[in-house]
Each structure stands twice: as C-alpha cells, then as structure tokens.
Amino acid sequence: MTPKLFGTDGIRGTANTPPMTADMALKVGMSAGQQFRRGDHRHRVVIAKDTRLSGYMIEPALVAGFIAVGMDVVLVGPMPTPAVAMLVKSLRADLGVMISASHNPYCDNGIKLFGPDGYKLSDEVEQSIEAVIAGNSFAPLAKPDKLGRARRLDDAPGRYIEFAKSTFPKTLTLEGLKIVVDCAHGAAYHIAPVILRELGAEIVAIGVQPDGFNINKDCGSTAPEALCQTVIREKAHIGIALDGDADRLLICDEHGKIADGDQLMAIIATYTLSAGLLRGGGIVSTQMSNIALEHYLSGIGLSMARVRVGDRYVVEHMRAHGFNVGGEQSGHIILSDYATTGDGIIAALQVLAYMQKDGRPLSLCGKLFTPWPQILRNIPYGGISPLQHPQVKQAIASAEKTLAGKGRLLIRESGTEPLVRVMVEGQDQAQIEEIAEVICASCLVPRA
To answer: Lower CB count within 10 Å: N or C terminus of the chain?
Structure first.
C-alpha cells in the first residue's frame, strides 16, 4: 500500500527522501495540474518557496510537472505562504504552490497547495491528487504545441508589501516604536522588515541572512530566546518572531515576555470587537488553546468554537459559520477580512494597531488573561504509534479520571511529523507535570 502523502499541512518530509523527492514533486505537479485544468483558457500556477537548500531541487521538478500538462508557471522566489494565497487571487491563477516545511529544520521540506480561491485544498481534492499518483493514472500529457511556459514575477515582493501595509489602519502609524523582528532566516527575511519600516517603525532585524541551512535554527517563532534577548538589549518596545514561511508568529513585550497564539487571539478579538468589526460572535480555535482564553472571551460576551488541530480546520469552520477571527495557540492567526490562511505579518500589524490605539506598553495592555498551567511534550516514535498500545491507553484513561473537572488532556499524533503530542492542562502545576511524565513514560516503554 502506498503511504499517505498529504498530512494536515500538505506534503512534508526529509528532503531527497520519499516522499520529498524530485520524482514525487514532478508527479505532484502533473497530478495537481491535471486536477485544476478546467476550461479552455491558458491555465496558470504560482510557485513560491522558502529559503531551504532543497527548494532548488523541488521547484524545477514541480515546474516540469506543471508545464508537461500544459500549465503556465509564475515563479516568485522566496515569499511568505500567505503571499502565495494572495497572489493566486490577484493573478487569477488556477493554483498556488508553496515549497516549505514551515517551522521544521532545513533538512525537511514540503509542498502546500492552494486553489484558485486562495484557500488550501480540501481533503477530498488532496485525496484525488494522491489517488492519481498512487495509481499512476495520469491523463495524457500536453501535445508539444500545448506545453506550458515559465516566467518570473519580479515585483511579487512589492505587491505583497503593499497589500500587507493596506491592512494597517490609515489613522495610525508605527512612528515612535522600536521593533525587533526575527524572520527565522526564512521566506519573509526581505519583506517583513520593509513593511514595518515603511509604516514608520525603527527596525532591528534578526534572522535575515539565510544560507539554505539556517532556517528556523535557534531563531524564529519556535526558538524565541534570541528575539527576547535582543528586545531587552535594544530597549525595544516589542518583538515579533515569524516562522520559516511566515504564516505564524509569536510576540514578546518590552520585557521579553512571550505572548503565544492564545494571547494574540485575545488581543485581536478585543481590538476587532471594539472597532465593531468582529463577526460570528466570537473566534475559532483548536483543542490546544488554553481554557483561560475561553473564560476571558466569555467574560466579554464572546464564544470560542474549538476544532481539531490544524489551521485548515480553523479556516473551514470560520468559512462555514461566518467568523472572521481564528487561529491556533502555536501562532497561526487567520483574519479572513484580509487573508485566506494564517499570516504572521498581518496578525502582527493588528496587534501593533491595538497597542498604538491603547497607548500603553504591551506588558500593560496585552495581558488580558492568565493561562492555566499547561504541559506540552513531543514523543518521537517509529513504526506503529504508541497510542495503539494498551498500557498507553490505560495511562491516558487514568489521567482523564484524575483530571475530571479540574483540567484537560489532549493526546494526538502529529499530522506533520512522527511524534505523539501530549498536552496536559490544569490548575495544579505539580499534578499536571506528574500526569505528563506518566503518559510520556508509557509511550517510551520498549515493546516486543
């Protein structure tokens, strides 16, 4: 049986190892291109990437696949994932592709696909693309005179920069603010500092020297220590950390204290509500979000709908039920008035607008709730998931009984890596630490 290609965020794996090979990229281009050839017009796909070395292998293979089935290709080079979604709609393209493994290290890479509406593909469409590849059931290739063409769009960064700036209130400015921005040596290294500077801020930029190997290495939203230290050293007002493809962020205040996605959603929901622009009566988040966020929102008359982990599921619920603010604790923030997917830069601009309008430092205006203690652990595994073993199931059942009414437990397999993710939340720090240790230990017990 052919292994499943698509996870919760496209195809992802170690570069030059199945499924992230040039051969697979070629097949994805052919299958996705055939899937989105609808009508007699010249079809077009937009392809961007982050700064990983393996992008030089995957990009031309995808281009060859799309051209072989008669699709024109527009190459935009290193660009944030949300910029691809924006450009697909702006250019009236039929498909968008982002070559990135997001927050993973340089040795990994991935392929994310966007439809002509700028949204990530549904499970059904991904399964259709996957079935063609698995069954080697490709449609006939384009005739020689119907092959696609490839070109580069040199002004793509400028288009996205102007778009992002347009989401910041015209009545406000970033003048007077000193901002540290950490671009994780990733896709936004040449874009995020420009946006903030052109809106008036004094910028200290770190993580802006990609070399193909250093993306997300000791920097960015998954390693914000460098950001926090720089904010304190530079006496900056705020720090912004993006991940490798800039679709998520973390922020720290002037004291170097981190605000995660839950805190950012509270800020943005409050700001959007005060402006009379919040729709849906609340926000959409996932099972990972802290229960204190839910309590805070309830206190200001808002609801919080929880969905399964994955920003695509947040977006699906937002679209189906009329919400315009949603996100994940990890820092994927979706603001559907502006974007069809998580956008770290646009989310940061809304937080900055909130802070500027309030007039106080983020440490004072941004601490809207105190999170319950929460333990997050990742347990690597090979072969069969530990969650299938009786002793692990027993440990989970015992923990749920202990936490009943006093906390939450969420144990799941990662959709992007061979990891079991363990989340334990409760009001008693010592208790949840003990529960986490027991569950993690049960996952690591050697088995025949």
So the answer is: C
